[in-house]
Specification:
eight-stranded mixed sheet; seven-stranded mixed sheet; 11 helices
Length: about 375
């Protein structure tokens, strides 16, 4: 069975397809059995690109035309320059999900390259021209209010995998739109990590990346005894790690995995008297086992909001090297497609939708010898 699954996956993705590329003007390819478009990133910062990929029908199959209902049309939109690798990864994940579901879906991918008001308006104009009612919008919270100015936007279901509702300051401006927010809640992860740490002394190490600064801002409501931005100018970590405020403290790591591994090693080498080291989803990755030593991870606790994934869906993705077990963006994307096409997320029985937001579990893990070990946080 597994061998047959390999053949089907690779035949679908790499053999049975033809690809055409056109800017702005979209060639309308009539679907036969199944029609799929997948992304090809572009460096053009002025145009919206569409890459159409349609499966080839064997000659011995009748050339019957199949009408795809509006409910079975889906579009992914994103700014490739803004979100980088997530664009391609999420598109591959969604393609694999559609193969897994074996449904007749016409999937279109629109790359606006750079996210700004003009490009958002342009890409949604294309969505409406193609009469697509289901949109996975891999965009940031910038310029979201511009959607209110698009005529007919209320008739389109929009899923935002990269945005949590709590991040939107003027959420009432979007109340008329048919939107579901799909990002995990970093604030809830911090709350649970700090509650479990049960310490009055908190310290933070963060860096000057976008995610580092974002996570740093989430901690403004907490009383931090010590906070330090780790950048390229203070690579000699042992100096600021010897600060007395770190004694018996819970250190919050808001740094990506490579920098986190260096900091963990430096903490071990300095034999520092630190109570615990905690981190959010940012460091929930198997790379932690190859980039750190066992002794570096002894006090490390990591939060994770990726819940239960059906075994066969997980296997489909693993066959093509897709990461959904450790990538919350990919995980959120398939949840969004499930919601848009079925009107529910029952496939994921540990999730729910409340007030237009996907609610994820927050689980805490110790980082063991070669695996993440779930902590029972019930008190």
């Amino acid at each position: 069975m597994k061998a047959l699954l390999h053949i089907l996956v690779y035949s679908f993705l790499f053999i049975g397809c033809t690809t055409t590329v056109q800017k702005i003007e979209v060639v309308d390819i009539k679907p036969k059995k199944q029609s799929i478009s997948i992304v090809k990133p572009t460096v053009d910062t002025k145009k919206v690109d569409v890459v159409e990929k349609t499966d080839t029908i064997p000659e011995d199959v009748a050339e019957e035309e199949v009408t795809v209902k509006e409910d079975n049309k889906l579009v992914i939109i994103f700014p490739s320059v803004t979100i980088g690798k997530y664009a391609l990864e999420a598109t591959n994940t969604i393609n694999t999900y559609l193969l897994y579901k074996n449904k007749q879906i016409k999937l279109t991918v629109l790359d606006m390259v750079v996210q700004n008001e003009n490009n958002l308006l342009e890409v949604f104009n294309i969505v409406q021209e193609k009469q697509i009612k289901n949109v996975v919008a891999m965009i940031t919270k910038d310029n979201l209010d511009i959607l209110n100015s698009i005529e007919g936007i209320k008739d389109i279901k929009i899923y935002l995998p990269l945005i949590n509702k709590s991040e939107i300051e003027n959420i009432d401006q979007l109340s008329e739109l048919n939107i579901v927010f799909g990002a995990i809640n970093y604030q809830e992860q911090f709350n649970k990590l700090i509650e479990y740490s049960d310490s009055l002394s908190l310290a933070e190490l963060y860096d000057n990346t976008a995610i580092g600064n974002t996570l740093h801002n989430y901690l403004k409501s907490y009383d931090l005894k010590y906070t330090k931005k780790v950048d390229d100018n203070n690579g000699n970590y042992k100096n600021f790690l010897k600060n007395k405020k770190l004694n018996n403290a819970v250190v919050i790591l808001n740094t990506p995995i490579v920098k986190s591994s260096i900091l963990l090693s430096a903490i071990t080498a300095g034999d520092l008297n630190i109570s615990k080291i905690v981190s959010t989803q940012l460091n929930y990755t198997p790379l932690i086992f190859s980039l750190t030593q066992k002794q570096d991870r002894k006090k490390l606790i990591i939060a994770n909001s990726i819940g239960k994934i059906p075994d066969d869906l997980l296997e489909y993705n693993q066959l093509i090297g897709n990461n959904i077990l450790y990538s919350w963006v990919n995980y959120s994307s398939i949840i969004g497609v499930e919601y848009l096409l079925n009107g529910n997320i029952d496939l994921f029985d540990d999730l729910k939708i409340e007030e237009n937001q996907i609610i994820y579990p927050v689980n805490l893990y110790k980082v063991g010898d070669n695996s993440f070990e779930l902590i029972n946080t019930t008190k």
